[in-house]
Amino acid sequence: MPSDNNLFVREGQSEPLTVTIAIARQISGLGNTTLWKLISDGTLQSVTVGRRRLVVYQSLRRLLSCDAAKPAEPVRGRPRKVIVGKAVTS
User: Are 18 and 59 in contact (CB under 8 A)?
Assistant: First the structure.
């Protein structure tokens, strides 16, 4: 059975240079909109061959690595009102 890091690499082969958007979606668990946004803002590197867009596999690995993980941004908006230690939900 292949290791978790190489789910899309056949045994005896090295890592792919590029993967399709569909494969990048399966590897990352991200949706189409998020992947295209990451490509457009330069976070994910991609190449176009003819009419086909391919994601550079190493940039996808960098994005998903633990070293690149950023802490979650603080929640925006007003905090909930608290009355005598009891949260009001509305």
Answer: no
Provide the CB-side half-sphere exposure for 63 (13 A, CA): 20
Q: Which long-range contacts (CB under 8 A, 24 or more apart) does 63-71 make?
A: 63/28, 63/38, 64/27, 64/28
Give the model's pLDDT for residue 49: 95
Where do the structural domains in the chain lie, given as residue ranges? 4-69
Backbone angles phi, psi at 88, to 5 degrees: -95, 125
CA-based nearest residue to 69, from 79, 57, 61, 77: 61
pTM (two decimals): 0.63
